[in-house]
Sequence to fold (149 residues):
Amino acid sequence: MENQYEFEFDKYFNHYFNYLIRRGNVSQSGRMQYIQRLDLTQTNLGKLTIEQVIAKAISKFETEELRERAIIRSDAKLFLVINYKAMVYLPLRDSPKFSELELKKEIFSEVQKILKAAQEISTEISAHQVLIAGSKIWDSLKTLSRGSW
Fold:
């Protein structure tokens, strides 16, 4: 019974995560392939929505760091998108301390740092592990030093 619940729960989070990414003008048919092909160079990073930047950071971490050693659950992906957008990106995007491009680059980097720290906690990275990992590396996150909190 618990496995069925976890499957349905993961399906729900995955669906919502995909919805958020599609809202950023990513085609439904090739959503993950499109995200993986995105080149986050300085010239096109500014054209991506913050949801796409975070999804690309997650995808890059999955392909380059995780390989077969761990998985990132859908709830962790959704947690990162929602919280980074609402609690970091939106408050700082109009700040004179950041250009939008610098902010997106720092968020991209921080998402990968958090996932790396979460991977040290568990081979199955959930939103809970992301929260714990974020608190462990809190002082090293650059966006916090430029924030108004």
